Amino acid sequence: MAETLIKVDLNQSPYDNPQVHNRWHPDIPMAVWVEPGAEFKLETYDWTGGAIKNDDSAEDVRDVDLSTVHFLSGPVGVKGAEPGDLLVVDLLDIGARDDSLWGFNGFFSKQNGGGFLDEHFPLAQKSIWDFHGMFTKSRHIPGVNFAGLIHPGLIGCLPDPKMLASWNERETGLIATDPDRIPGLANPPNASTAHMGQMQGEARDKAAAEGARTVPPREHGGNCDIKDLSRGAKVFFPVYVDGAGLSVGDLHFSQGDGEITFCGAIEMAGWVHMKVSLIKGGMAKYGIKNPIFKPSP
Predict the structure, then answer these.
(1) pLDDT digits 0-9 by tens, 132-142
(2) Residue 207 backbone phi and psi in degrees, to 5
(3) What is the per-residue pLDDT for 150?
């Protein structure tokens, strides 16, 4: 049995869990350490950390504070990992928690988050999906029942300081081209809602003011939303900091190719069973500068 190294209490705020974070920054301490070749499990919150409830009102989707997301379990430090290595992550299994066999899907309000179709659907909407093994159905969408393909929407490693600075520079520049756009072209650092894991004091405050938001995918992985990145998939992540700093979250029971409503997956809390190994010097050896994904069989 693989040991569960990070546990989450769905009745507890993720801000009270020091093994969870919602920003990318090289100084976030490792929540746990493992040896290369280790198998382990991580429990995760849903991406909003429990802000969306299993009820029939979309007011929580309308009013959700999107500066808080995504809540990630980690970072997991891999002993011996150094910048320039490749971290190989095998996703052995992924599932829903026994105490949370449901997920949610929705449209964000045009005034809070928006979406690709917000000219047609400007108001917040929500559907709740109940899980029955590999199948799901919703009281809000009668007559639909289908098999899911559970996957982590978000998985990646910590950036180094130079990479973080480049992200903030290019994303600040992008926002400046159309600062009033809804949804925004990018999301700048926001210290007020940052959760930096175990960091405290002045170091925490400095990192929170610099920490990159988790919304876009970047060179390190991140919010990739690849539906075939399910159990059996393998990912080769570039390592930028000692220990690699692997984090995961934003689990989806199912998702199409693209999240058209901006909350277009069936979002869920759950767990991931994974194995990690290292290819020393793998970035130079294989000419890899970004994650390489091998989809699930």
Answers:
(1) 999 999 999 99
(2) -65, -40
(3) 96
CA neighbor of 282 nearest in space, from 229, 252, 244, 228:
244
pTM of the entire structure? 0.96
Judge contact between 71 and 45, C-beta under 8 A: yes
Q: Tell me the C-alpha distance between 253 and 227, whole Å.
A: 9
Examine the pLDDT at 165 and tell me if it is beyond 80. Answer: yes
Token pair recorded at residue 217: 């995918």
Q: How many residues does the chain have?
A: 297
Query: Which of 204, 218, 179, 209 is closest to 191 using CA atoms?
Result: 209
- Report CA dihedral (118, 124, 130, 135) to the nearest 10 degrees: 0
β-strands 39-44, 3-6 pairing: parallel
Distance CA(22)–CA(189), nearest Å, equals 11
Candidate from 216-220, 232-236, 259-263, 277-281 with smallest mean pLDDT: 259-263
Question: Does residue 82 have a pLDDT over 90?
Answer: yes
User: Residue 236 in contact with residue 279, Cβ under 8 Å?
Assistant: yes
| Long-range contact pairs involving 164-169 (C-beta distance under 8 Å, separation at least 24) | 164/24, 164/25, 164/26, 164/210, 164/211, 164/212, 167/24, 167/212, 167/218, 168/210, 168/212
Which DSSP string do the residues of 172-206 spell out, in sequence order? HHHHHTSTT-SS-S-----GGG--BTT--HHHHHH
Name the average pLDDT for the chain: 95
Phi, psi of 60 (to 5 degrees): -70, -35
Output phi, psi for 132, to 5 deg.
Answer: -130, 85
Measured CA to CA in angstroms, residue 89 lies from 44, 71, 86, 267 at distances of: 17, 20, 10, 22
In 7-68, where do the E strands start and end?
20-21, 32-34, 39-44
- Collapse the DSSP code of 224 into the 3-class scheme (helix H, G, I; strand E, B; otherwise coil) and give the result: coil
Q: Who's near 30: CB < 8 A, 6+ residues apart?
A: 74, 75, 76, 77, 243, 245
